[in-house]
Amino acid sequence: MSDKSRFCFTCNKKFKPEHVDQAYCSRECQSGINLHRRLYKCDVCGKFYRPSFKNQTICSARCKKHRAETRGRFLILDRDDFTCIYCGKSSVTDPVELHLDHVVPRSKGGEDAASNLVTACIRCNSEKSAIPLGNPGFVLSEIERRNDERGINSGQRIDLTVRA
Q: I need a surface site. Which of 1, 67, 141, 162 has the fewest CB within 10 A?
């Protein structure tokens, strides 16, 4: 004979349900009085976890690191208003795919830092390829201005190997 017990969704205590659809061990758990003990779904990996502190949205340090790395791409796209720095096309108004481009290419010593990355449409990015700009001064000064305006640390490394 199988055990008909299950675990309460809110407090995770084992209980015997009175009916098939019962998911909570008590009225308190069902009404949310024990909400601080409830299981939450991680924003990054989707696993369920019990929060250690108020407003916790991720389950582990690994997920925290992953979220910080993937937010780096978004940080650059947002800083550049989702607009190609070279031609001015925007993913908001134009049907273009945006990428991150190194002003100074990696092959020429460029870093994956906020001070060396810009938003570029797929066409501009592929045409530029690994060719350094003839005069990158304007683009680099614009990046610095935008980083200062948004409070972005220019030396912040952006992990481009991680996809959201």
A: 1
In this structure, what are the phi and psi dihedrals at residue 148, rounded to the nearest 5 degrees? -65, -40
- Would you call 29 exposed, middle or buried from its count of C-beta atoms within 10 A (0-12, 13-18, 19+)? buried
Residue 45 CB coordination number (10 Å):
14
What are the tokens at 84?
């190609």
Look at the pTM and tell me if it is higher than 0.70. Answer: no
Q: How far apart are the first and last CA of the chain?
A: 46
C-alpha–C-alpha distance, residues 20 and 6, integer Å: 10
What are the chain's domains? 65-150 (1.10.30)
* Tokens linked to 152: 């972005």
pLDDT digits (tens, 9 = 90+) for 127-141: 888 777 778 888 889
The answer to whether 76 and 117 are in contact (CB under 8 A) is yes
Residue 12's pLDDT is 73
Query: Measuring CA to CA, which residue among 26, 45, 46 is closest to residue 37?
Result: 26
Q: What is the DSSP letter of 90?
A: B
* DSSP per-residue string spanning 118-161: EEEEHHHHHHHTTPPPS-THHHHHHHHHHHHHHT--TT-B--TT
